[in-house]
UniProtKB/TrEMBL annotation:
InterPro entries for this protein: DUF2304
Protein name: DUF2304 domain-containing protein
The organism's place on the tree of life at top rank: Bacteria
Transmembrane segments: 6-28, 35-53, 73-92
Entry annotated with the keyword Coiled coil: yes
Coiled-coil boundaries: 92-119
Source organism of this protein record: Spirosoma agri
Pfam families from the UniProt entry: DUF2304
UniProt keyword terms in alphabetical order: Coiled coil, Membrane, Transmembrane, Transmembrane helix
Amino acid sequence: MESLPITIQVLSLLGAISFMVFIARLIVKGKLREEYSFIWIACTIVLIIFSVWRTGLTQISLLLGVYYPPSLIFLLGLFAVIGFLVHLSVVISKLQQSIKDLTHEVAFLKKEMAEKKRHDGLVLSEDTEQTPAH
């Protein structure tokens, strides 16, 4: 099998480095948490390695029995995306439960405040009723 042409190698290397800089800027600006950036940085490092190591993808695909090396990248990318989606689903489920618990707590606190205001209002109304009698 032939290795990748040099122009594709340079373009993929520039794209991977640009993506790494983009992820770093998102982290610095606080728009992306560090825990979510690890998978993107790991994927970018893999892309940089395969961009520099021209025959590496071919050798690994032959070792794994994959006939067409780019299909190995798509397969690994598909697994990474599915894994990341499952992780995000777990995170969203936890957040949804937290929102539900917080909503219940706010509702109970509002109910307690309303009861306290009503109780204080009754006490005040008793005081106000007693005040005119004096």
